[in-house]
Amino acid sequence: MFFGGGIKLIRIFGIDIYIDYSWFVIFFLVTWSLAMGVFPVAFPQLGLTTNFILGVITSVLFFISALGHEIAHSLVARANGVSINKITLFLFGGAAQLTDEPPSAKAEFKMAIAGPLSSLVIASFFEALSFLGFYRHLGLPFVAVTSTLAVINFWLGIFNLFPGYPLDGGRVFRAIIWYFIKDLRKATRYASFGGHILALLLIFFGVFEISLNNLIGGIWAILIGFFLSQAAESSYQQVKFREDLGETQVKELMTEEAASVSPETTIKKLVDDYFLKLKTDELPVVENGEILGVVSASVVEDVPEKEWPKLKVTDVMKKEIVDVLPTDKASLALKKISGSGKERLPVVKGKKFLGFISLGDIEYYLALKKRKRLG
Questions:
Q1: Residue 20 domain-assigned?
Q2: CB of 144 within 8 A of CB of 42?
Q3: What would the DSSP string read from start to end of 18-73?
Q4: Under a CB-based contact definition with an 8 Å cutoff, are residues 177 and 187 in contact?
Q5: Beta strands at 282-287 and 290-296: parallel, antiparallel or unpaired
Q6: Is the domain of 172 the same as that of 95?
Q7: Residue 360 to residue 357: CA distance in whole angstroms
Q8: Which of 70, 108, 209, 282 is labelled catalytic?
Q9: Please, what is the Cα angle at 313 between 307 and 318, to 5 degrees?
């Protein structure tokens, strides 16, 4: 929910699974930490090469476990009437992208608690495999991987129960406050404050660990602390904006007169007559009023300049696009813009391109609304 780009992997239960680019950083760090820190201490009989191989295997299985955690959230969300667009694996695990806030405090509680409980179930599963491997003499590498995954998932479940929003425990905390005060915005503010407090404690703990020469553990704690602080503030702002937008629809805020390119446009013409003159880095490809895809400057940069006069935008455009309907709530558009990492999204009805709604459009509307309220 806080990251932009990503790679689509698979579709499970009708939910698109993505890997954010930040995941590759954390995959390397987790593998390195296991191979150079955990395994040499816990299993000194294993060699360096074996440690790295086991580190890769454990990291992959850990992120599959994190995916299981998010799927548990998603299935409970669906059972409570909240649809899920996608799940993204990113820097510190994963996030399920909800299309809207839960309909009630009880639904929020059930959705939030499902994640930590699933992690504890997964931890129990790997612990059972570890015991089986030990007593059945399945080998030290098997025991090393399964016992480590049991520990990681156990602490993942416990950590997520801490009352710091937007951790699952923070969402449980918000659900309880929401249930009693009947005000989602205030409940989110209180829960976000808990997230900031937990973030500060983690940062101080990280500094303390570094002072004790535990560099890896300290850096981890500081990184998680900074991330949690940012996530707490971002989550509260999204709830506040969503309430301020209310029932406002996309068609009330969108820009209808929007530039587009035809599928026959060459890349050279696209760069010279559109990207440079319009000072934009992404445009819809439209034919007879229907949107075929989008073409972005980042894709064009990967094409050798000598090929620009010969290639057309249809050769490099992206057919899968993130769009919104004119009748969608503006709050949903805001959530999609935040999740996509883009500044604006095309507004589409059927296949007909109607215009754009941008972050600037939404911010301008909110600013006007605030000015009227103050005036």
A1: yes
A2: yes
A3: EEETHHHHHHHHHHHHIIIIIHHHH-TTS-HHHHHHHHHHHHHHHHHHHHHHHHHH
A4: yes
A5: antiparallel
A6: yes
A7: 8
A8: 70
A9: 120
**Active-site residue flag, 70:** yes
Sheet containing strand 93-98, edge to edge, reads 6-12, 15-20, 84-90, 93-98
Residues comprising the chain, all counted: 375
pLDDT in tens, 358-372: 888 888 888 887 777
Task: For residues 89 and 82, give the distance between their C-alpha atoms in angstroms, rounded to a whole number.
Answer: 20
Radius of gyration of the chain (CA): 24
Do 327 and 291 share a domain, yes or no? Answer: yes
pLDDT score at 4: 45
DSSP state of 262: -
Prior bond of 116 cis (ω within 30°): no
Structural domain including 108 reads 6-245
The count of structural domains within the chain is 2
pLDDT in tens, 42-83: 888 888 999 999 999 999 999 899 889 889 988 898 888 887
Strands (E), 40-173: 84-90, 93-98
Report the helix count and the strand count for the chain, using DSSP H and E.
Answer: 14, 8
